[in-house]
Give the backbone structure.
Amino acid sequence: MKVLIVDDDRIVREEIEETMVESGFDVKVVGDGDEALTMMRAQGFDVVFTDMKMPGMSGIELLQEIKVIRPETYVVIITGYATIDTAIEAMKMGASDYIRKPFGNDSLKQIVNGIQEEMAFQTSLGKLPPMSSATQRDPFNEFSTLAKGHPSLCISHISPESIMKDQDLDNTQFLWLSNEAHDDRAVNPQNLYDLKTLIEGFIQENPEAVILFDGLELLMERHGWDNLRPFITKLQKEAGDKKARLVISLKNANIPEDVLSSLRSLVSGSAIQALSDSLSNALRREIIRYVASIPGLAFSEILNHLSIRDSPKLSFHLRKLVSDGILAKSGDKEYKLSPRGEGVYKLLQAMEQETVDDSQNYVSLIFE
């Protein structure tokens, strides 16, 4: 593993360097952000330790530049007690962790061990066997069942009136893929931008919505898979961010096998992609496991169990898990797994056995 240490304090640089070299890593040290960026562009690093406050470029500015040059690099912020809030903000911006001055070898090794665990976890994501991503079901029956109690949007080339003859969808909004200019629900299927804008607007205004995208093969005929793939990928991300359920249906009779394979791959990985940011952090995985074992834990109980001396760091990770819908916080300020969190815990267990159940996938593919 290649490690870069960035600090204007020679003593701090040497302390970290000594620990990293003892651990067997390839280590480089520099004294400022500009020199660090030059080295990053030249050879890249797996991990960067950077001081928060340095002459010239700050640690935050360096973090932002690194995430542009090499997003996969793990960045650890070195901070004093007075800048702890800024360190938390840095984690929101993509820093993997922070370490407070003064620190010892054990603290440094703990952080590096956590990063190595994250690297191993990301590798394990790529080794998982494919999930079953496509089924033979009636898309409108599936949609009608999922939509109960949720805001819902139906996108189809079939007119809304024809769909509602057979389905109870009184509270559903419709986007009709049609050239019928007189109907304000109609969207010209030639215009992907307008369609994308309307769908994204609905998702933003209706978190945890259910969306049916019926007749995808018609858009493939008009636009081709190369143009449609980024469109679907963007919708997946928007749906995942707002915890919306996206159901995609199509008739596969005339679709080339390589396109079907690409679509299956895109859809089957959506659940893991949506959760990987939360699950890749070793501390967050440990929190999930502990809360799963004892529901209704207080902050102090989690803090003591995990032997974390840094309460702001734990607070950040708990807020992240709550924000991602994995943990639920009660009025008594106790933490437990949400229904989605229970699925995530099963996913973690399945990964240890190298099997995955797609029941928690937020994107479904249905063949008619």
